[in-house]
């Protein structure tokens, strides 16, 4: 028995309602053949069967129509649902697109803000560098001003101390001069008292007339004596004032030179500071330029990174859009398959398929793309499965392509970043090299300027020394002129006041006394003390032998060439200055004896004052130390001798010392001369002639007697000595304490 069920849509179209009321009379007809009927009833049965078949056919046709209508309704509802879903997908896609646009705008805004921040930071950095440059220049200027102010204060304090020292020296000099005047006055008063006492003794036993005459003469002599003493006091005061004026002029010249040198030094320091400040500003400007270049490179790098970031963002957004579209399409196909699987049994096989197909053909123009897709999926399930596999392959390929594109984009980004970083590093390195070269060049300029300033100061110092030498010479000339004038005035005074006999007698007595003093002094200078005493006693000194003495020679290196190209007065003046200076040094050593002077040669011996006695090691060391110390002082004195009027810049003195035994004796009667004879004299002469300028050379024997704690003995080496062969010699200098 077949059962026909009518499916109707509910009033809302949301469900299906089964209808079974027509199964009995109007909507359902059941007929069954009966085998037991007879042929008579066959016709009736055929008619009834035809009626039933017709009724069943009509019912089937009606059911088919109803199923088609139901399928069309379902399709309409499905299309409406798909339309709603499609609209939701469109809204979702629009929201995704809007969110992507917002994200792009946010990214662009963030990148623009980053670029603006970079520009702003660079501007601030530039302003800060400019401010630092100004502050550095101001700091250098302030430092220079502070140093100049401190130097000025120190210079003023130094000048003040120098003036105070000068005032103290002048005060002490005035006190000493006052004592000299007081001593002169006391001497003059004593002379006057002695003269009065002598006069009183002379007139004691005279008669009255003779006494009066003598008293008048004595009164005249007293007046003359007072006049002479007054003149001496005036001349002494004049000489003292002249000396004070010379000292003041010398100090004034020194202070003027100090002021000039201080001003010159301050000006030079200011120039050096300005140059250094200019160089610092230039270096800062170069660094600023380098930083601007670095900022531009950073900006380009940031721009490239932002471009890459935007491209990456767009790629991601495209992938998101494709993924959303893919998800929507897959969702539509899944819903189609679910609808088919849920409603296939209800619609029933081919009838349902035909109904859906008919509805699809009827609604093709109305359903659009979604209905056609649905019809295709319903008509060919196997095709649906094939599309899923193709989509999986496409998805795999798309993912692979996306990964490859992302990897390529990442590699390109890394390459661009590395290239930008490399370019930035190379540019910075070149800039640093350029700045370092500029700095070295600037340091060289500053050093060259300082050397030039040092040369200028040295030239000023030499000019000042020349001026001081000229001032000293002028003062000496003025002093000699004043002394000459005073002597002339005194002579004129003596000639004016008369009584030349008394003056002559006094002069004769004084000259005799002076002759005796001068004779003794000359004798002491010409002969050793023990020989001079023998001659004063009227005895002829016998020749003697000394077991050890220390003697040295001095000479001027290149004296013959100097004498050939100099004037006679220049040579005489030079030798006179040198011998006067040497005699002053020798005067400080009582145990030394000046043997002789021949042209520029000066011979001095130590160890003759005690006579021919046996000497101990201590005596020999003392004689050697005395000779070495005196020789070193002679070298120092030679450096200070004025040579401004000579053809040389300095006296190149050479000294050689040797110790050993000598023979000594007095030769001559009218002009007795004390001579030394031995090989020691020859070796000492060779030590002098083979020495170097401004050097003291000694033999090995002499070096053994010198105390290393007092003298610095440096080995020169072996030299060839005429008549002696090879000898080891040494240079001696005074050890600094």
Automatic annotation (TrEMBL):
Region named Disordered: 317-418
Comp. bias intervals (Low complexity): 395-408
Domain Guanylate cyclase, chain residue ranges per copy: 550-688
Coiled coil: 156-190
UniProt record, GO biological process: intracellular signal transduction; receptor guanylyl cyclase signaling pathway
Record's keyword terms, sorted: Coiled coil, Lyase, Membrane, Nucleotide-binding, Transmembrane, Transmembrane helix
Alphabetized CDD domains for the sequence: CHD
Entry's family note: Belongs to the adenylyl cyclase class-4/guanylyl cyclase family.
Name of the featured protein: Nitrogen permease regulator 2
Organism this protein belongs to: Geranomyces variabilis
